[in-house]
Amino acid sequence: MTPHKRILPTGFQTDYRTKIIPHVKRIDRLLLPFEDRQIGKLSLSAVSNIFDLISETLVMDEGYSFHVDDVKAMMAYAAKKDFAHIVVKTNRNIRRLTKTGVYETSPDTASTKSSELRVARQLAKTTPAIIFLRQNGKEEHGWSGTPFWWPIIVLPSTMTSTIYANKTIQTR
């Protein structure tokens, strides 16, 4: 993990509408109050709860993974306090695949001064910032036709580079 590194799930599809809508609605209740001002703070336990809900909405394609417990552990390690900054954007229409046919890996990198990535990097000094993008999930963009939340963690700029391994060798 390096300062200001972005951590996000890629290589996924959303699950069936009937399965994920209850989770999306629960996330909406937690995050939509921030929609108008677009930035805020949430406790790490609230963020962990949101990540658990998001993990229930994603179906990872072969060769890709989103280990929610590892993500939460990285967040807890990177946070110097018991909160994270959040940046909330809604009504997004990012395509699942780029024009070259590879998975989208930069749903947060608009080039304007007020882009969510720039804002998150300004906020992520000593504690992480999480960008929560509410995607419309349209079929014509390669998704399953239902809205979903796409999280992007921006690690703090002041953190020390750290090696993180999500699996350890087991010894007898």
Concise description?
27% of the residues lie in helices and 22% in strands. The protein has helices at 17-31, 44-55, 68-78, 116-123; strands spanning 6-7, 12-14, 39-43, 58-60, 83-92, 129-135, 148-154. The longest helix has 15 residues, at 17-31.
Please provide a written account of the structure.
The chain is of the alpha+beta class. The chain has helices spanning 17-31, 44-55, 68-78, 116-123, and strands spanning 6-7, 12-14, 39-43, 58-60, 83-92, 129-135, 148-154. Helices cover 27% and strands 22% of the residues. Residues 168-172 have low confidence and may be disordered. Strands 1-7-6-5-3 form a 5-stranded mixed beta sheet, sandwiched between helices. Strands 2-4 form a two-stranded antiparallel ribbon. The radius of gyration is 16 Å and the shape is globular.
Blueprint (SSEs and pairs):
Blueprint: E1 6-7, E2 12-14, H1 17-31, E3 39-43, H2 44-55, E4 58-60, H3 68-78, E5 83-92, H4 116-123, E6 129-135, E7 148-154
Parallel strand pairs: 5-6
Antiparallel strand pairs: 1-7, 2-4, 3-5, 6-7
* Rg on CA atoms, Å: 16 Å
Helix fraction, binned, reads 25-40%
Total of DSSP H or I helical runs spanning 4+ residues: 4
Coarse structural class: alpha+beta
Overall shape: globular
**What percentage of the residues does DSSP assign to strands (E)?**
15-25%
Order the strands across the largest sheet as they lie in space. 1-7-6-5-3
N- and C-termini, Cα separation: 29 Å
Count the strands?
Answer: 7
Mean pLDDT: 88
Q: Helix-strand pattern, N to C?
A: EEHEHEHEHEE
| Major sheet attributes | 5 strands, mixed
Extract low-pLDDT stretches: 168-172
